[in-house]
Design brief:
heterodimer; A: alpha+beta; Beta-Lactamase; Heat Shock Protein 90; 3 domains; six-stranded antiparallel sheet; five-stranded antiparallel sheet; rod-shaped; B: alpha/beta; Rossmann fold; five-stranded parallel sheet; 18% strand; globular
């Protein structure tokens, strides 16, 4: 049997599976728990840090934008307070002031206009021809006339380009006037445009209707601007007035929104970034972790499988060897008491049989004098008496065999050359082996010591062992028998080995028992091996057997010799 | 064929009786004894020529009986009768002066030959002794 066929046994297969499962579970569980919790902690802290960073950024820009608007408003308010109505009605004066503002702040201020209460622009300074333009129907005008100062939403207006205006209301003898300045959209837009992070992070401004107040870097399309605005405002709100939310856009990709109200809560500054872009670092870390877990997993699976297989192979081998060892143990005590029993039975049976045979003999004697019996009856009676004699003899043979197992007979010993004896016995068996398709080989150790034994008895033992082996092989349609002689320490060892079907474990422990036989009734007495055992025991030796199913059986005969011989 | 007396000693009564009958039928004067003590009593009163003695008996066993017989009548020949198990005892008996041994169950003819051999030896022994006595007597006379 080799390792492969051992591992085919379902018991060892399930053992491998169990070990693999346990090894994998035990190594995976901590790995997954540790890396999972680490990743979780890391992503939480990364989230917090990212949001804090974005929040700060948005707050800073809110300050910038609010500061910008307040500054521009203050410029205009300062103008309105410092000059008379009459000055402002003067177009040249207005143009001078615009020029002064533009030198101071660049192209932020696009134009200036002075408007009376009917919404008619009385004076105008700027690149467009808007003198006498009427704003009476403009929405911003209605709001501007009702408040001290006003900053409009971005709109196209009369000039057709996006802009917004700052107005300051003046009162002259109860009559309201409005000083108006247009803020260059590009200048304002640059404040928002500068807010760019990563590949997809950008900012824009919406008014309370959800309309854009700045030009977004990427297109932001939402079917319902107002509900978009509302959903931004519905996000998580912090103490600093920041709104955090995550909303999927129309294409389905998740975006992070960080928003803050500006311009007295009229407008909202929104920072948007693609989520996968914002969390690119985290995602990279996640991917690395998954890769490591995956590779580690493969290593664990392969290792646990190989290790389990290796261990189970060892176990299977050990089991197999143990089984072999078990098979060789013979209960010598049991055989000794069986010997006593056998000799007792033999003796007890012997006497009654002797009497029976004697009585038959007596009847035979009497028949000689009998003249009245017919010839037929005489023949029958004589046949019956002869039969009694024959069966009595048969009983005697059995009891004799029993007694030779019990070693109650006297034997003589002589010089025996083991190898010669083996060759002789193989010679006896040659004929039978030929018919049974059995090949008998011998491997004989040279220079074995000459032993002091009963030649005929040892011959009987070997003959018996060879006959048994041939019986086993003939049932198997032929095979090989190897007879080996060897010198091991103080013992000469004779082995009779066959490659037959082997002896089942149940029978192996009993094969030396008297009357134990697997042959059909009448074919064997079951005394052969018992007698062998008795003979070898008497010689001070030992006879053992080892057998493996489907591999063969080996009988070992160990005979001690005296070294000085 | 000489006329001679035989004593059969065996504690198996059935065996003993049958064997006695068979020997009587063969014109041999046979007496049976069931145990050692009985055998010794008969030997003291009417000494036989040959004793057939079973080795294994209740009470006084074959070896003890043999020893006693040899003390009483050294010239009486003894044939040991034995089962297989008592071969050692049979051999021991031979060393103590028994004529031979036989294995049970034994054929009656085999026994007969042994008995004749034993009786012949006894005769030879007796003749030897007689001659010795005759040689001694003239010296006295």
């Amino acid at each position: 049997m080799n390792q492969r066929s051992l591992l085919k046994n379902p018991y060892y297969r399930s053992l491998i599976n169990k070990m693999v499962f346990i090894a994998i579970a035990v190594s995976f569980a901590p790995m997954l728990v540790v890396s999972g919790s680490m990743l979780n902690r890391f992503s939480i802290s990364h989230n917090e840090k990212l949001y804090a960073h974005l929040g700060e950024l948005v707050l800073k820009h809110r300050q910038n934008i609010d500061g910008f608007l307040v500054e521009k408003l203050n410029n205009i308010r300062f103008m309105a307070k410092s000059f008379d109505i009459e000055d402002l009605k003067n177009e040249k004066f207005l143009r001078n002031n615009l020029a002064a503002l533009q030198t101071e702040y660049g192209s932020v201020f696009e134009d200036l206009g002075f408007i009376n209460e009917e919404g008619i622009q009385v004076t105008y300074a700027g690149p467009f021809k808007l003198e006498k333009a009427s704003y009476s129907n403009s929405e911003w005008f209605r709001k501007a006339i009702n408040s001290d100062y006003f900053i409009s939403d971005v709109f196209l207006g009369l000039r057709g380009t996006p802009h917004f205006i700052i107005t300051v209301r003046l009162k002259n003898n109860g009559t309201p006037w409005i000083l108006r300045a247009t803020i260059n959209f590009a200048a304002f837009n640059s404040l928002v445009e500068n807010l760019r992070i990563g590949e997809t992070g950008f900012a824009f401004i919406l008014n309370s209707k959800g309309e854009f107040q700045s030009k977004p870097f990427f297109e932001v399309t939402h079917r319902k601007p107002y509900s978009f605005y509302e959903s931004i405002k519905a996000g998580r709100k912090t103490k600093d007035g920041l709104f955090f939310s995550e909303i999927a856009d129309d294409s389905g990709s998740e975006n992070i929104y960080v928003a803050s109200l500006i311009k007295n809560e009229d407008w909202i500054l929104i920072y948007r970034q693609d989520k996968s872009d914002a969390f690119a670092d985290l995602n990279q870390a996640k991917e690395a972790a998954i890769f490591i877990i995956f590779m580690g997993g493969i290593v664990i699976i392969v290792t646990s499988f190989l290790l389990s297989r290796w261990m189970v192979t060892k176990i299977a081998k050990a089991d197999w060897e143990k089984e072999l060892m078990n098979q060789q143990v013979i209960e010598t005590g049991k055989l000794a008491s069986l010997g006593e029993l056998a000799s007792g039975i033999a003796h007890e049976i012997n006497n009654p049989v002797a009497i029976m045979v004697e009585e038959a003999g007596w009847v035979n004697d009497l028949m000689e004098d009998e003249r009245l019996v017919s010839k037929e009856n005489r023949d029958e009676i004589e046949r019956a008496l002869a039969q009694i004699k024959t069966q009595g003899k048969r009983c005697r043979e059995i009891t004799q065999k029993l007694l030779s197992f019990a070693r109650k007979t006297v034997t003589s010993s002589e010089d025996v050359t083991i190898n010669e004896l083996i060759k002789e016995v193989i010679g006896f068996c040659a004929q039978r082996a030929k018919f049974g398709n059995v090949v008998i080989n011998s491997k004989l150790q040279e220079n074995l010591p000459v032993m002091q034994l009963s030649n005929s008895e040892l011959q009987q033992v070997l003959l018996n062992l060879l006959n048994n082996a041939m019986d086993a092989l003939e049932g198997n349609k032929g095979g090989n028998i190897t007879v080996t002689s060897d010198l091991e320490g103080n013992e000469v060892v004779i082995r009779v080995e066959d490659d037959g079907p082997g002896i089942p474990k149940v029978n192996l422990g009993r094969i030396f028992d008297p009357f134990f036989t697997t042959k059909p009734v009448g074919k064997g007495t079951g005394l052969g091996l018992s007698i062998c055992y008795g003979i070898i025991k008497e010689m001070g030796g030992e006879i053992t057997v080892s057998s493996v199913i489907d591999a063969g059986t080996t009988f070992h005969v160990r005979l001690p010799f005296k070294k000085n011989n | 064929m000489y006329e001679f007396n035989v004593l059969l000693v065996d504690d198996e009564r059935e065996f003993l009786e049958t064997l006695v009958k068979r020997l009587l039928k063969r014109k041999i004067k046979v007496t049976g004894a069931n145990n050692g003590e009985e055998a010794l009593k008969i030997i003291r009163e009417t000494p036989p020529d040959v004793v057939v003695l079973d080795v294994k008996m209740q009470g006084m066993d074959g070896i003890q009986t043999l020893r006693e017989i040899k003390k009483l009548k050294p010239l009486v020949e003894v044939i040991m009768l034995t089962g297989h198990a008592n071969l050692e005892v049979a051999v021991e008996g031979m060393e103590m002066g028994a004529f031979d041994y036989l294995m049970k169950p034994t054929g009656v003819d085999e026994l007969l030959y042994k008995l004749e051999d034993a009786f012949k030896r006894k005769k030879i022994q007796e003749q030897k002794i007689k001659r010795l006595e005759e040689e001694e007597t003239p010296e006295r006379g």
